[in-house]
Design a protein that fits this description.
CATH class of the largest domain: Mainly Alpha
Low-confidence stretches: 1-11, 107-117
Oligomer: single chain
Distance between the termini: 50 Å
CATH architecture of the largest domain: Orthogonal Bundle
Helix content: over 70%
Number of strands: 0
Radius of gyration: 21 Å
Number of domains: 2
Order of helices and strands: HHHHHHHHH
Mean pLDDT: 78
Number of helices: 9
Structural class: mainly alpha
Shape: elongated
CATH topology of the largest domain: Rna Polymerase Sigma Factor, Chain: A
Strand content: under 5%
């Protein structure tokens, strides 16, 4: 497996991120090893901020480095490795969540963790996210079954109102009305 190869410590240090990525594009495996060894811990911490599913986080981390190696020739200039890797991580987690339907696995706040935040701020932020998630779930529970169905199809599965109408054998205007009422109810509940 490709990842097992990266466990070996990279013996090469790069003067800057751009030099490392240039070597990677040229097929130098030590550049990939360097990126893995340098950023894996921070990326794992970031992944756990995006999802509480450790297995999903681990899978996404492996996929980052597999994708980077696979698409190395098409990667442009990268000056900030961590930011770039974090974007790739977010993309992979979102794809996995959408593909497998892990809607409860993704945290509401998908912003990158700020490394300058202290522990107290991180704990408070995590508590706020948990509270928001709980309030949203309670508000969703107050919707009618049909409203929940429309909200799920529209916002969790990404279907258009036309597609929802076809799927539920309803007319377009009825779907719009249900969605509108559902959003009004959610706003009222979340105030």
């Amino acid at each position: 497996m490709l990842i097992a190869y990266f466990v070996i410590m990279a013996d090469k240090n790069y003067q800057n991120d751009a030099a490392c990525w240039k070597q990677l594009r040229e097929g130098n495996t030590s550049a990939l090893e360097y990126l893995y060894d340098t950023y894996i811990d921070r990326l794992f911490h970031a992944a756990l901020k995006m999802t509480d599913n450790r297995e999903l986080a681990k899978d996404a981390l492996q996929e980052i480095f597999i994708e980077i190696w696979h698409y190395r020739a098409s990667i442009g200039n990268v000056n900030h490795s961590y930011s770039y890797l974090l974007k790739v991580l977010k993309s992979i987690i979102l794809k996995k969540v959408k593909r497998k339907g892990f809607t409860n696995e993704l945290y509401i706040n998908e912003q990158a963790p700020d490394e300058t935040q202290n522990i107290e701020e991180l704990i408070m932020s995590s508590e706020r996210l948990t509270e928001q998630k709980s309030r949203l779930n309670m508000a969703l529970a107050q919707l009618t079954a049909r409203q929940k169905q429309v909200v799920r199809l529209r916002f969790f599965e990404g279907l258009t109102y036309e597609q929802i109408a076809v799927k539920l054998s309803m007319n377009y205007q009825s779907v719009n009305n249900l969605a509108f009422r559902a959003m009004l109810n959610l706003r009222k509940q979340l105030r």
